[in-house]
Specification:
145 residues, 5 helices, 79% helix, single chain
Length: 145
């Protein structure tokens, strides 16, 4: 039950952060909003790091043994947050949430295929059905407009 509550809260925070980031971008601009978003995240991470009493291996070369693409997460985050801020004024929150869901689902399948060399047929069918439903709904909305 705890994981269900946490997943619901995670979804709520995604929508709230999108709304707050859009409001901030209206006042400061998209790039400044993205900067403050990541600055706040950095400061929060530093506080959590200090509170957790983890050891810091910044200068330890063996701590960086992962593949190069693992270290592109920050860049992907900046692009994702900037796109969400820009698109928040152009697309409804409902569609943005669905796009985010479908994107995460298919990105997860791609990562599974790269790492484990298999794709779950259930995820593929579910993601395809959601994508078809989303496309159909967008088509209906565009036809009515």
């Amino acid at each position: 039950m705890l994981f269900i509550i946490l997943s619901i809260l995670s979804g709520v925070t995604c929508v709230l952060s999108r709304v707050i980031n859009f409001a901030l971008s209206e006042k400061t601009g998209s790039y400044q909003s993205t900067f403050f978003n990541f600055l706040t995240g950095l400061l929060g991470s530093i506080v959590l790091f200090i509170v957790s009493n983890e050891t810091f291996h910044f200068f330890d070369v063996s701590a960086y043994s992962g593949s190069w693409w693992i270290y592109t997460g920050g860049l992907v985050g900046v692009v994702g947050v900037t796109l969400q801020i820009v698109l928040s004024g152009k697309i409804s929150s409902f569609y943005l949430t669905l796009f985010l869901f479908v994107g995460q689902l298919f990105a997860g399948m791609i990562i599974d295929y790269i790492v484990v060399h298999s794709i779950s047929i259930y995820q593929l069918v579910g993601g395809t059905l959601v994508l078809i439903g989303l496309s159909y709904n967008l088509w209906i909305d565009k036809r009515e407009a």
